[in-house]
């Protein structure tokens, strides 16, 4: 919504589509394979890895940690450097943990940097603690169960909203989906609910994916 002619700012993790580097392949490549969120909208917290030999890109270190917890063979972990917006080796990155900036899939934000000096100046401006990758991942894993339960609760509330929107806006869809990302790709391609994006796309995608459960 416009306020005095200016557009509302987008979320702090977002970049425009042309600035986002997408490392995974396939028709669902714009979405996190775990939670289905649109990757450029959360780009500044994106992570990528080879999982069982295939490139996957996540909205957050939370979704990466979930993949690890599921037993996937995860190698070559990368994170977006917030100073350059390029992917870097996560194992040598510095993270600002718990700044005042919004978290992705978590109440506690984690933003990555190639240079410690960049992380320190970010922490000086927005608060938070500068940590290496190993300590950041350990901390994420320690609260993963609790945060995943919170996410699932939020997703089920959003899926209920999605069901209401689907009933109001969409042509009937019989297709079954293996992930939220797959449901969102279908909605964007088939336009069964019109030209939806953003939150509408996410909540209807959540609902369609939840019908299989």
What's the structural blueprint in terms of helices and strands?
Blueprint: E1 47-51, E2 54-58, H1 61-69, E3 74-80, E4 87-89, E5 94-97, E6 110-113, H2 116-126, E7 129-132, H3 133-142, H4 144-169, H5 180-190, H6 198-210
Q: Major beta sheet, specifics?
A: 4 strands, antiparallel
Strand content: 15-25%
Q: What is the residue-mean pLDDT, rounded to a whole number?
A: 94
The number of distinct β-strands equals 7
Radius of gyration: 17 Å
User: Number of helical segments?
Assistant: 6
H/E topology pattern: EEHEEEEHEHHHH
Distance between the termini: 35 Å
Q: Roughly what percent helix?
A: 25-40%
Strand order of the largest sheet: 2-1-3-4
Global geometry: elongated
- Spans of at least 5 consecutive residues whose pLDDT stays below 50 are 1-9
Q: Structural class per helix/strand content?
A: alpha+beta
């Amino acid at each position: 919504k416009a306020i005095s002619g200016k557009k509302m700012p987008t979320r702090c993790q977002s970049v425009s589509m042309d600035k986002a580097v997408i490392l995974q392949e396939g028709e669902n490549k714009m979405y996190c394979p775990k939670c289905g969120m649109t990757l450029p909208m959360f780009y500044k917290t994106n992570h990528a890895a080879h999982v069982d030999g295939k490139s996957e890109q996540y909205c957050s270190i939370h979704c990466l940690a979930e993949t690890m917890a599921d037993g996937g063979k995860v190698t070559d972990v990368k994170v977006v450097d917030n100073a350059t917006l390029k992917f870097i080796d996560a194992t040598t990155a510095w993270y600002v943990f718990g700044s005042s900036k919004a978290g992705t899939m978590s109440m506690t934000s984690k933003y990555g940097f190639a240079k410690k000096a960049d992380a320190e100046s970010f922490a000086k401006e927005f608060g938070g603690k500068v940590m290496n990758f190993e300590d950041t991942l350990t901390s994420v894993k320690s609260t993963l169960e609790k945060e995943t339960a919170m996410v699932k609760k939020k997703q089920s509330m959003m899926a209920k909203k999605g069901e209401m929107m689907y009933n109001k806006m969409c042509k009937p869809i019989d297709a079954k989906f293996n992930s939220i990302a797959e449901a969102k790709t279908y909605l964007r391609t088939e336009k069964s609910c019109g030209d939806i994006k953003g939150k509408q796309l996410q909540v209807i995608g959540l609902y369609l994916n939840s019908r299989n459960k």
